[in-house]
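Weekly sync notes, structure subgroup
Attendees: PM, AL, DS (notes)

Item 1: joint prediction request from the bench team. They want all two components modeled as one assembly rather than separately. Inputs as received:
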Amino acid sequence: MSAPAPARQGRPGEEPPRSDDILVVRNLSKHFEVSGGFLGGRRGVVKAVDDISFSIRRGETLGLVGESGCGKTTTGRCVLQLETPTSGSILFEGKDLSAATPAELRAVRRKMQVIFQDPYSSLNPRMTVGQIIAEPLAVHGIVTERVAREARVRELLGHAGLLPAMARRYPHELSGGQRQRVGIARALAMEPTLIVCDEPVSALDVSIQAQIINLLEELQSDFGLTYLFVAHDLSVVRHISDRVAVMYLGKIVELTDRQSLYEDPQHPYTKALLSAVPIPDPAVELLRERTVLGGEVPSPLNPPAGCVFHPRCPIAVDECKAAVPELRAVRPGHLAACIRV
Amino acid sequence: MERGGDLLLEVRNLQTQFKTSSGVVRAVDGVSWDVRTGETVALVGESGCGKSVSALSIMRLVSAPAGRIVGGEILFKGRDLLKLTDADMRHVRGREIGMIFQEPMTSLNPVLTVGRQLTEPPEIHLGMTPEQSRARAIELLGMVGISDPERRLQQYPHQFSGGMRQRMMIAMAMTCSPSLILADEPTTALDVTIQAQILELMKGLSRKMGVAMVMITHNLGVVARYADRVNVMYAGRIVERATAAEIYANPRHPYTLGLLRSVPRLDEPRRAKLLPIQGQPPDLSHLPPGCAFQPRCQFAIERCLRESPGLAPVTAGHVSACWVSSELGQGTTA
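Output from the run, pasted for the record:
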């Protein structure tokens, strides 16, 4: 359980620094230039991530939810230094990554690992599972001796719930759940402190998703891991996260602890998202009120003026078209970007 | 729940197999189910359970020569579709049974305008003139909630968003006013807010036009809200069937029970731990003897290792293929 943060003053939309923060993201933006239009020529800028700030405490799981194109994956890639941010800063274990030397970055990359959505496309089909997991150990010089490396691979397979014999198999011989376990073992090999989980269960069968979520939770408590959990499935995010940030069109629209978000959502987008999640029980569904949002997510090339959500918002007023709402504390520890709450 | 009217589609002992390098895969292994007029029936299961192949078999679109329907009957309005000539079958596909696929972009023609793709079927199957079919296309686009239909008809599928393409697929499936629509994971590729729009649209259209629907999905939540009856599939067979209300309140197959327990639910207090189904999904080319679910089943008894259970009645309209289904009745839905 995450205790609500104490009442704080600071810049609006910014959480106060906490001593045990492992990751602090401040005013992060990532813009992509695209050649616009059918005939080329005009160029536009997609603000995939537009001035967002959040932090993650050591040992905590921050869920980052939103629909496709909201910028959640790009945020994860910026944190991992797989994208260079357009502006803003990312502090990992107190170090500003934009100012880090290449050697420092290499060390940071070891401590930040990633688990991808599609385990099949992120595993080399020509390598055995054992080779896949051993490779980073050799490359980073963590375990240089071959026999010791094999022992470490067996240990890592065990952590991920796989039998040692799996080391000789190829990815195509495994089921989706087993492949994701291999991806997890490979991430653990680096003894990371932070793992960015990018939709780690959404490609898996329902009966397997719960296995992987339980595994991620066990590993978190065994190894003191911190997760940035990027996903679109709100039920899964509620299960695994301590705090949750909701993104829409490149912006964080709501950020708070799990309980407040799911039991007392403030932003109309969060409310609509929650009401759109189908519940596997006809008796409950029959009684449920549902806000079906009209329209679609606007093109990020040409976002609406003012609040980006206003064209679909059920409670929008004229002021919403005029100014971009600040992410502000609507109550202690509960940030929302909406002038109507 | 509402049971619809007369029998529209009756699948009897359908068997569809694929020849692969590792042997014959019985993707659909002796499956029987039916759909009444106006009813929404769900086929639920995970990848490889045979739900999509069931739909492709009805349309006779199983890719030959690897795949083949080797047995059974598919009675649609009393006629066995498996005995029709190719020409007659084409007529059934376009006019009487519509199909909506998961990924609209791969099932729309990228080099034809939206208008052409919507006007072709009624011209071929209903003998409409171009003017009539154009008016019909405009009406349909309006019906599925696409604004400015006249302009949209000139556009190509790539100019549509994912949600709009799926709306267009629905419009295409409706063009010739079919009596049955097969929807294969119609919203899986879409975002939740768009998914809600599309499902409400499909349910509304099906009610208004009296179209029966077969909804193929892995998402138990979608099924709960939109299906009248549910067939749960596992390893090429139906393992449980009941009305939606019954199957969620009183699941009597360990697999259904496991699926319902393994998903976190937003309407319930958060559990400390999820309860997954153990083990891996079945490998269809190496199924165990006896019940295919037995290696993952926490209720398995000795008999399950030897004999494969058939569907047996639990209560009226509720069948389950499990030797211990009667014992699952009490206190297992918690």
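Discussion: The interface with chain B takes residues 67-68, 175-178, 205-211, 213-214, 217, 232, 234-236, 238-239, 258, 262, 272-274, 276-285, 290, 292-294, 296-297 of chain A (CB under 8 Å).
Action: AL to compare against the crosslinking data before next sync.
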